[in-house]
């Protein structure tokens, strides 16, 4: 099984867990698994495939959540691209630095999501006070889950490199 198929399977599994978490967990304690996955995909050497997968999973969240179509897709694709840019400057593969980056990005993403929804659908939005109370716990939950996910992706990449697949996360040299 190739690394690309494993990544697609992992992404779809995380999509199902994300949907289950949305149904079961309270609003303030929901980690954004698709955001974490999109951020982790930004560390991959094959940027276009990772970006397409991030957009696809974001679009699936759009369909499942009933949000304006394309909003999650755009923000998850942006997360993948932003990680690539920040990784060149910070080298985000250390677990503590990675978790800190995920917390900061999840906070910024939630604020961007709230602002965008307020602009697109002003009558049906959640008040800012509620959004600001939910963001920190959700961002911390996302960061806690980001470190194991990064190690899973590194393992998939190491196996794919042996198969002649995508370039490994661990072998990429900082430029």
Structural class: mainly alpha
Query: Helical amount among residues, as a percent range?
Result: over 70%
Domain module count:
1
Q: What is the rounded Rg?
A: 16 Å
Overall shape: globular
* End-to-end CA span: 31 Å
Calculate the mean pLDDT score and round it: 84
N to C succession of SSEs: HHHHHH
Q: Which regions contain 5 or more consecutive residues with pLDDT less than 50?
A: 170-175
For the biggest sheet, the summary is: none
- Relative strand content: under 5%
- Give a count of the beta strands, DSSP E runs of length 2 or more: 0
Number of helices: 6
Topology summary:
Elements: H1 3-24, H2 33-41, H3 47-65, H4 71-90, H5 95-120, H6 128-162
Helix pairs in contact: 1-3, 1-6, 2-3, 2-4, 2-6, 3-4, 4-5, 5-6
Tags for this entry?
175 residues; mainly alpha; 0% strand; disordered C terminus
Describe this protein's structure.
This protein is an all-alpha fold and 175 residues long. It has one domain. 75% of the residues lie in helices and 0% in strands. It contains 6 helices and no strands. It has helices spanning 3-24, 33-41, 47-65, 71-90, 95-120, 128-162. Helix 1 packs antiparallel against helix 6, helix 2 (33-41) packs antiparallel against helix 3 and helix 3 (47-65) runs antiparallel to helix 4. The longest helix has 35 residues, at 128-162. The chain is globular. The two termini are 31 Å apart. The relative contact order is 0.17.
